[in-house]
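Memo to structure team: turn this sequence into structure tokens by end of day. - J.P.
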Amino acid sequence: MSYVRELRALVGHRPLIIAGAAALIFDQQNRLLLQHRKDNQQWGLIGGSMEIGESLEETARREVFEETGLELDELNWFGLFSGQELIYKYPNGDVIVNVVAVYTSRRFRGKLKADEKEGYELRFFNLNELPKDTSPPDRPVIEEYLRSCDRT
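Reply from structure team:
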């Protein structure tokens, strides 16, 4: 059982501050990989909650492999995200206060395959054609990445 599931069994739907990691994964055409999530029916970044004993980088690598089948050959620091915009109430009533380490990667290997428990599909999107129904806690991360591209 995952750490978060163990906590949920104790506290129910009450807000939990959860550390996690996500990866902005880009293909050779500079398209961003997103997952069509089952929990909220929206498109989101690849990532998830840290388990006991993991580093944030290990969390990112594990989550990417579990959710996509890809192994990251590189992982570059992008930023740490927290605050009001990252508090999210899932459709089942669980409230998460996200603290997320975000990395970027452009080099990976493996065969892309969606985790049937977590997502319906995986798809690379052009940065100017991102889906409108993006998962709320992922929006600030994506928006910051797009702003950082405008500065370069």
